[in-house]
Input
Amino acid sequence: MIDYLQADYLRPNALADGVIESTYGDPFLADDTGDSLENVAALDLDALYLQSDETMLSLALSIAGDIFSNRGELSHLHGYDA
Ligand SMILES: [Ca+2]
Output
């Protein structure tokens, strides 16, 4: 039996809440919008943010569309245009 639930995982200090915190600063990468695969806005990367410390690398991204508007089609929402 793998006892992964008892592992002492590192956890971020701030839980993801859908808001890109100011601590991320300026985007590491900014991308044009309107250039996604099959014009699916939920796949259209707008910006990628990174921050790190001694133990963690965190990333956040903004996309042009509403990823939740594509419920039922989420099986293909794993590619980005960057
Ligand atoms: Ca884009």
Remarks:
- Residues 31-33, 35-36, 44-45, 81 surround calcium ion (CB under 6 Å).
